[in-house]
Design brief:
Structural class: alpha/beta
Shape: globular
CATH class: Alpha Beta
Radius of gyration: 18 Å
Oligomer: single chain
Number of domains: 1
Helix content: 25-40%
Strand order of the largest sheet: 7-1-2-6-3-5-4-8-9
CATH architecture: Alpha-Beta Complex
Order of helices and strands: HEEHEHHEHEHEHEEE
CATH superfamily: DHBP synthase
Distance between the termini: 59 Å
Number of helices: 7
Largest sheet: 9 strands, mixed
Number of strands: 9
CATH topology: DHBP synthase
């Protein structure tokens, strides 16, 4: 009897693990296939795509009706996923970023033409952040690199804070919605220019 109970408990735990990992896998697979997804972040719901897929980037710009010159934020699971952008940064600057992450601080770093123009917009910097949201971290880990993170709304319209709103507002334009709660932060991330130290927002 005890052995049967142990087997049942093991099956339940295994099912829960698979159940948690499957949506992350689905979202990652869709990102790799040029898809656009909605997902929860620390503050609001975001739209995401592969930052090196021009087709997907163009779709996000069109969905949001956003000015392509504004650029987009990239989020990652850890600072290592941004190494391709930070190879010329000094140790002091790397430490500054490391000390602020994971968390609600977005740094503007020189892009050195290592990301598409739709990501950096009209600027010589690109906005990057290591997310503290567990689902975002898992998604970027499964995807294998940073993803685009821009608010899930039409430009100039209110942001959305739940999956129901995301589906109601943007559902027809999306390939996948990653279910989960929004974080408790009540303000957008701070934005700091790495070179000057100037606080752009926050």
């Amino acid at each position: 009897m005890q052995e049967k109970e142990s087997c049942s408990t093991l099956r339940t735990l295994l099912y829960k693990t698979i159940n948690m990992r499957w949506p992350i896998y689905q979202a990652s697979h869709i990102l790799k296939a040029s898809g656009v997804i909605a997902y929860p972040t620390e503050t609001v719901w975001g739209l995401g795509c592969d930052p090196f897929n021009i087709e997907a980037l163009e779709r996000i710009i069109q969905i949001k009706r956003r000015d392509a010159h504004k650029g987009l934020i990239l989020v990652a699971a850890d600072i290592k996923q941004f190494e391709f952008l930070l190879s010329t940064c000094c140790a002091e600057d790397i430490q500054k970023m490391s000390d602020s992450w994971p968390g609600a601080v977005t740094w503007l770093v020189p892009h050195q033409h290592r990301v598409p123009q739709l990501v950096h917009g009209q600027f010589d910097t690109v906005a990057i952040r290591v997310s503290s949201h567990p689902l975002v971290q898992q998604l970027c880990t499964e995807f294998g690199g940073p993803i685009v993170s821009t608010s899930a709304n039409f430009s100039g319209k209110p942001t959305v804070r739940c999956a129901v709103q995301a589906r109601a507002v943007l559902g027809p334009y999306l390939d996948f919605i990653l279910q989960g709660p929004v974080g408790l932060a009540n303000a957008p991330s701070r934005i700091i220019d790495l070179r000057s130290g100037r606080v752009i927002r926050g």
